[in-house]
Amino acid sequence: MRNNRKKCLVCKEPMARWIFGMPDYESVKEGLENNTILIGGCIISDNDPIWTCLHCCISYRYDGVGYVDKEFIENRAYNSPTYSSDTNEKFELLPYQLPDKIQTILKEDFLEKLKTIRSVGFHFNKGGYSSSVDDILYLDGILVWNHYESQDAYYGHKRPELPTNVFILSPVWKKILNTFLISSKWKRNYVDLGVMDGTQWELTRLFQKKKKNSYGSNEFPEVYEELMEMLEAIEMGITNGILGKFV
Ligand SMILES: [Zn+2]
To answer: Considering the entire predicted model, what is its pTM?
Structure first.
């Protein structure tokens, strides 16, 4: 197994593999000592990670999609290489910081600064007067998703340091999403004048160094629905393995 360790898609370092259930201690001893194995609980769910990068605190699901693992970050003192299980001693940990590649996307002008012809990105925002707001940023395989309970919570506030969700797309997903962003046809405006407030959305796509904007008010074209379906599938995970198994 040691020669077969998966590498983190963000930092390219080899990761630790999760073992669930009740493993025989002798068989995992070495892995625990050299941080190639992490012990999960006895309760196994579809959402359990398969691998975790100890540097980035990014865990990877069965379908190969990674996510910034808040639970792991909270417990990382115990999972860290320098934690001593003999003395049960916790040590001072520096606050968690998102990897640079992700921090770049959190900057206001993340679509401006990018200047490679191959970069594909988008900024999507959806909200309404009395509803929650979803603000989603994407660049080259990294999806940063912030959810705000109200418009007030969204406007006038800085993006949080630790976003609601950060997903690292598997190569298969990255290709699907990039292809969609480049080839789907969007009009500039979709407006239903018959509705007074409701839902407003805005999408800025970036590809081939160009930005294209679309805006909608209570109108949702088919391409919009397609994008929503993809985002939902990335968020929820597809566990039947059709999108490239990672294990
Ligand atoms: Zn990493």
So the answer is: 0.87
Q: Which two tokens stand for residue 232?
A: 């939902």
- In the chain, the domains with their CATH numbers are 2-79 (no CATH), 100-236 (3.30.1560)
Alpha carbons 227 and 214: distance in angstroms, whole number: 13
- SS3 state of residue 41: coil
- Compute, in angstroms, the gap from residue 96 CA to the centroid of ligand 1: 13
- The answer to whether the CB of 32 falls within 8 A of the CB of 19 is no
What separation in Å is there between the alpha carbon of 191 and the centre of ligand 1?
42
* CA 213–ligand 1 middle distance (angstroms): 33
Among candidate residues 162, 130, 134, the one with its CA nearest the CA of residue 146: 134
* Residue 4 DSSP code: G
Strand partners, 118: none
| Rounded distance from Cα 33 to ligand 1 centre (Å) | 19
What does the pLDDT look like over 47-94, one tens digit per residue?
789 999 999 999 999 889 999 999 999 887 665 555 555 555 555 667
Place of tokens 């398969």: 50
- The closest of 74, 71, 135, 141 to 101, measured between CA atoms, is 141
CB-based contact 211:205 (threshold 8 Å): yes
